[in-house]
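Your task
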Amino acid sequence: MCLFRLGDEAKAHEFIDKSIEINKQTNQRNDADMPMLRKAQFYESQNSKNKALEQYKKTLSVFPNSEWAKKKIVELSK
């Protein structure tokens, strides 16, 4: 998040993608969906609504109980 706020969007996405890969092996944790949600939030911050929506859908496909992803899909689909 810090890299993104400092304007280094490419590096921010690189780190979040690494985090997603690492978290795939620990998806039993309650917060395991967080890296995927953060990536969607990055897209939202960049005003890339379609990319954010697609990322929330990806999150929900991996974490079907992700309440935040469900909420944001409904919100962004309007």
